Amino acid sequence: MIPRIAQALTSDGRSPVLWLHFSEFTGDSEAFFRAADPDITAILLDVLNVTYHETIQVACGEKAEYHRDQTVLNHSGEFICIVEGSIPPEVQPLPIFSRPEGKR
User: Fold this and answer.
1) Which of 52, 56, 69, 80 is the most buried (most CB within 10 A)?
2) 99 and 92 in contact (C-beta within 8 Å)?
3) How far apart are alpha carbons 96 and 90 in whole angstroms?
4) 3-state helix/strand/coil string of the chain
């Protein structure tokens, strides 16, 4: 995973990022928002394409979930998934990474 993150931070293209929130207190997001060098603006506009983050995204509800799912389908093997907090046993495996019936 470290080589993929390093590649994302040094490439010309912005890698899609899905930032998922589970059992957490938003400390990771707070640290991300308060980044200083580069700052959050530079990270969001120049480095990463944060396509799903419940705290900073404009879309909500079904539109947000649709956009998240499209990122998974259209950028398979390319996106970075950040999980903030622990994943409760009742939601494992993550439903967004399950393939629809008949899709391989």
Assistant:
1) 52
2) no
3) 14
4) CHHHHHHHHHCCCCEEEEEEECECCCHHHHHHHCCECCEHHHHHHHHEEEEEECCCCCCCHHHHHHHHHHHHHHCCCCCEEEEECECCHHHCCCHHHCCCCCCC
Kindly tell me if the per-residue pLDDT of 102 is higher than 50: no
Does the pTM surpass 0.85? The reply is no
- CA-CA distances (angstroms) from residue 40 to 30, 34, 83? 11, 7, 18
